[in-house]
Amino acid sequence: MANHLELLNELQQLDKVPSLERLRAAQKRRTQQLKRWAVYEKEMQNKKRKADKRRTVNHAAATESKHHVSFAASVALLEASARNDPDEVRYLLKNNVSPDLCNEDGLTALHQCCIDNYEEMVKILLNRGASVNAQDNELWTPLHAAATCGHAGLVKVLIQHGANLLAVNSDGNMPYDLCEDDPTLDIIETAMANRGITQEMINETRASVERRMMGDIQELLTEGEDVNHQDSQGATLLHIAAANGYVQAAELLLEGGARMDLRDSDGWEPLHAAACWGQMHIAELLVSHGASLNAKTFLEETPIDLCEDEEFRAILLDLKHKHDSIMKSQLKHKTSLCRRTSSAGSRGKVVRRASLSDRHNLRVKEYETEAIVWRGGREEKEIDQENNHPSNTTVTVVSSHYFLDIHCKVLLWVQGHLPIYLFLLLNITSIRFLILLLQSQKWLVLHG
């Protein structure tokens, strides 16, 4: 970069040169100035960026020194157990973290290790005081989990630490109910035999859950509480009884006014739950009380659609067929009764209107005219025969008049109680009968 003296010398020299050369020298000098300015600006920007970066790093370091990321103890323990990290688990337990901490589903670290078959971790947790009979939200114990997965080694460890062999989950199943692995099942059944567990004890334990539920229901009914209360998932007591096959509890609920059409958050009615979990007796009970086999969930599924057991499905289809037949028969009978009542009422009104006035008098006059006509043809003969047979003639005339009077009354009554075509037929028949009767009376008079 030129100093002040150099610039002065350059100006003195430029005074001696032509104007065009002075202009070119000025442009050259200006270009050099702009280049130097650009370099200077770039250097300043670099310095600023470095300073900003230095400040950011220092601020981050200061912030990190003040704030540390931390997790809940339950999360840390469950995460370490799921990673099968014995050292981390021991460290947490030594720092007074409870081994029975659970997540939102009620699963403890022991549950998780029994599912994943981490035998060493299970022993660490049990030795640190973890509850061997801890239950999750669906009442599953670690033994339920190990038995379901067929982890024979873990089942032995849990039984040695006093696991409850008769623990019942929310579905009413014990560990041996869920075990499909034969060696594991042998271990459980052997342990049950060693503890003296009998079938009666098993049945008693299963029934105890329903008895407790029935006690709670009876208490609700006594206090006048609503048995149709729905929980956060929309399930009612009848949903629970249906899913678990608690027939007596369901009967008690139905007697107490439990509704069968209430839906849970999935649109399931109690009958859907009974069909899904194969509770045949509950399904029959609900259908007999009017539950619909055509009811659909929010996914358009009927109870029959949710039934996986073919035998049970056949029973439900049979129940549906019988129910539909009964409903059709009742509807047909009801419609038939309505038609008969309507037609009979209409006919009765018509007959009643006519018979109250003109038709009665008209029919009486017709029958009287008919009687006179029949009498007119015989008056002369009866008068001629009166001297010869006065008693018979009197009897004949009296009987004829009496019979004609009764005949008119009978026809009046019949006309008001029979359809018109039957009345006409009967009228014609009665006229023929009168003719025969009068002819027979005439023969008796002549030959008597």
From TrEMBL:
InterPro entries hit by this protein: Ankyrin_rpt (IPR002110), Ankyrin_rpt-contain_sf (IPR036770), PP1_Regulatory_Subunit (IPR051226)
GO molecular function, one term: myosin phosphatase regulator activity
A Gene Ontology biological process term: regulation of sprouting angiogenesis
SUPFAM superfamilies recorded: Ankyrin repeat
Ranges of the ANK repeats in the UniProt entry: 105-137, 138-170, 233-265, 266-298
Coiled-coil regions, chain positions: none
Record membrane topology: Lipid-anchor
Summary of the function given for this chain in its UniProt record: Inhibits protein phosphatase 1 activity toward phosphorylase, myosin light chain and myosin substrates.
Quaternary structure annotation from Swiss-Prot or TrEMBL: Binds PP1.
Protein name: Protein phosphatase 1 regulatory subunit 16A
Organism of origin: Esox lucius
